[in-house]
Amino acid sequence: MSVELDVFVGNTTIMDEEVYQFWLDGYTVNDAVKVRMEGGVLEECEASAEVLRSDTMDQYRTFQMCERLLHSPAKLANQLLFQIPPHRQAMLIERYYTFDGVFVREVLGKKLSKGTKKDLDDVSAKTGVTLKSCRRQFDNFKRVFKVVEELKGPLVENIRQHFLLSDKLARDYAAIVFFANNRFETGKKKLHYLTFQDFAFCAGQLIIVHCNHSRVLMRPALIGKEFLQDLKELKILITDKDLLDQHKSLVCTALRGKTKAFNEMEANFKNLSRGLVNIAAKLTNTKDVRDFFIDLVEKFIEPCRSDKWTAGDMRLYLTHYTNSAHILDTFKHQVVWDRYMGVIKSCILKMYHD
Amino acid sequence: MPGKLKAKIVAGRHLPVMDRASDLTDAFVEVKFGNTTFKTDVYPKSLNPQWNSEWFKFEVDDEDLQDEPLQITVLDHDTYSANDAIGKVYIDIDPLLSSEAATVISGWFPIYDTIHGIRGEINVLVKVDLFNDLNRFRQSSCGVKFFCTTSIPRCYRAALVHGFVEELVVNEDPEYQWIDRIRTPRASNEARQRLISLMSGELQRKIGLKVLEMGGNAVVGYLQCFDLEGESGLVVRAIGTACTLDKLIPGSASNTNTHPNTAPASNACNSPSKEIKEPVFSEDPTHPLSVPPTPLRTLPSSSSPPPFSPSKLCSRQSSSSDTDLSLTPKMGMGSGISVGKEAGPLKTLLRQQAQSALEQREFPFFTLTCFPPGFLVHIGGVVSARSVKLLDRIHNPALGNTRSYKLLDWNSVAADEPETRDAWWEEIRQEIKSHAKALGCHAVVGYSESTTIWYITHTILRPTSISSEEVCILSASGTAAMLNPRFMREGCLDAGGSDQRLSRQPPLGMVGSERAEGEVSSSWLGFDDASPPSCGFCHIPYDEFNMPFPAQLTYCYHCRRQKVPDVLFTTIDLPAEAAVTGKGCLIQARLCRTKKKAQGEVNATAISNLLPFMEYELHTQLMNKLKLRCMNALFGLRIQISVGENMLLGLASATGVYLSALPAPGGIQIAGKTPSDLSYDQHISTMQKRINDTIAMNKELYNIHPPECIEEVVGSPIPDRQRSRLFRSTSESSDELSELDLSHGKKDAFVLEIDDTDAVEDIQSLLTDAPMPAGFYSCNTEVMPGIYNWTSGLQMFTSVRVYRLNNANLTNQGLNKIFTDLCENLLKSLYFKLRSMIPCCLCHLNFTVAVPEEELIQVAVTAVAMSFDKETQLAADKALNKGSGENEEQLQFSMELCGESTSSNNQPTAKPSGLPESAMTHSSSRDRCSTWLELLRLKAHTIRRGSVKTTSSSERCSPLPEVRSRSLRSTRSLPCGAPVTVVKMTPLSFLPRTRIVKYLGIINMFFIRETTSLREEGGVSGFLHSFIAEVFAMVRAHVAALGGNAVVSYSMKECVFMENPNKNQAQCLINVSGDAVIFVRESDQEAIPPLITCGQTSTTGADGTT
Question: Which candidate in A2, A3, A6, A150 is best for mutational testing of the B interface (most B CBs within 10 A)?
Answer without folding.
Answer: A6
